[in-house]
Amino acid sequence: MLVLVDQDQTLADFGAGFDRRFLAAHPDAPRAPRAEADSYWIEDSYPPQWHERIRAVSTRAGFFRDLPPLPGAREAMEAMLDAGHDVRICTAPVRAYRHCVREKYEWVEEHLGLSWTERLIVTRDKTLVAGDVLIDDKPEVVGTFAHPGWTHVYYRTRYNRDLPGRHLDWSGWSGVLADVEAERTARGALLLPRLADARTPASTHRRAPTPARAPRALTLPATGPDRASVTLR
To answer: Which residues are catalytic?
Structure first.
């Protein structure tokens, strides 16, 4: 399958990084650990007077680059490739993107390896990206298309645990993806069957060159009185 994997709070521990930076900058702030949050939106856990300071945290240099990886993330990404899935990271930058986009690439290189930067898709609208499955912690991924082509599988968190649908974490992803694969295959919606060599992305697979053909000879009837034919090569 073509598997799209979110970056923040799916591969990188956004919550832990936020808690550390926010409390370091504001030791007098209320304690609201992201691991205990019932809402995806951080502002919902704090009084309104803290909201601007909350939004400022992720715009600072180093925030995205320094996020810790979630346990088992790298191993799962490599295992999905070994299982024949074409795996891409599909991540949305914050609107104040000055540091964010570059640091997302730096994070991927440091924690997954340089080759994974070739598999990184940065977009504000994930509904425009083709895929069989999107693994994402966000409760609702919205954009241009109300019904994207991929199947949304939730990366398990406290704030999405009660939502209907499939959930996984990196300790148990294979069975969930197998179920999605079977379901999409049954209804003829599978975009990409498993690959023999998933470490070469499908988009870079090249067709074998077509052998050169000798030019055809074209014989035209003559129109003159001798009626001799003319051969063009």
So the answer is: 6, 8
